[in-house]
Design a protein that fits this description.
With 223 residues, this protein is of the alpha+beta class. The protein is built from 5 helices and 10 strands. The chain has helices spanning 10-18, 56-65, 85-92, 97-107, 109-128; strands at residues 24-29, 44-48, 72-76, 80-84, 137-147, 150-159, 167-170, 178-185, 199-204, 216-219. The protein has a 6-stranded antiparallel barrel with strand order 5-6-9-8-7-10. It has a 4-stranded antiparallel beta sheet with strand order 1-2-4-3. Helix 1 runs parallel beside helix 5 (109-128) and helix 3 crosses helix 4 (97-107). The protein starts with 9 loop residues before the first helix and ends with a strand.
């Protein structure tokens, strides 16, 4: 219930659950029923304001572990999507997901009702997950040295704490792990603060040569 006593919409409950982890740039969450009063085939899609690969495992586990009456799929590309597998499979075959959802809504209310109950449990499970520590992100502005096993780069900006000993992975390259061995901070330049590089960092590890300009490196949580 909202503070006004009105029921909180599924869209709003999904937004609140997801924004516990990171700011949202985009959110799609189908409402419970359509204009004709039919229970809609549910789906939940979103995009955070910047990549958060450290959250992928959590969302995959939630989709698999939440009590379910139908089979669900979690996938992540430009956007993240949680959808019934029947809908996801038809989308993969080239069909428009919105059109598929409308078709299933009108032709299989039994499935839609079961899936609607499931998505409520999935949203509740997301809301119950402990918020993960915010990962550190390094944005590569220049490559000073890039060789097998070592990367020296200039970082324009970053979020979170950066320190020696932290392990980083480039977004989209889970098999590359680099340990930050040194960080040299540049003196502040107030007159050009928005454009000034912040630090030069050295990272070592397998796959360092695969990191390029404008790469986003995300820290790996300590085990």
């Amino acid at each position: 219930m909202s503070t006004t006593g009105e029921p909180v919409s599924r869209f709003e409950r999904a937004r609140i659950a997801l924004e516990r982890f990171a700011p949202l740039a985009w959110l799609k969450c189908s409402s419970e029923t359509d204009n004709a009063g039919l229970v809609q085939m549910p789906l939940l899609g979103w995009r955070f304001s910047e990549p958060h690969p450290e959250l992928q495992g959590m969302f995959s586990s939630v989709v698999q572990d939440a009590p379910r009456r139908v089979t669900w799929t979690f996938k992540e590309g430009r956007n993240a999507l949680i959808a019934p597998s029947r809908l996801a499979l038809r989308e993969q075959s080239g069909e428009d997901p919105l059109g598929v959802a409308i078709d299933i809504t009108s032709s299989d209310q039994q499935l839609c009702i079961a899936a609607s109950e499931d998505i409520e449990r999935i949203i509740q499970a997301i809301a119950a997950q402990p918020a993960l520590p915010i990962a550190t992100r390094l944005y590569v502005q220049q490559l000073a040295k890039c060789s097998v096993g070592e990367l020296v780069c200039v970082v324009k900006n970053f979020t979170g704490e950066a320190r020696a000993g932290m392990v980083f992975r480039p977004v989209g390259a889970a098999d590359v792990e680099l340990r930050l061995t040194s960080i040299r901070w540049y003196p502040p330049r107030p007159e050009t603060m928005s454009r000034a590089p912040l630090a030069k960092v050295t990272l070592v590890g397998h796959g360092a040569e695969r990191v390029g300009l404008k790469e986003l490196l995300v820290s790996v949580p300590d085990q």
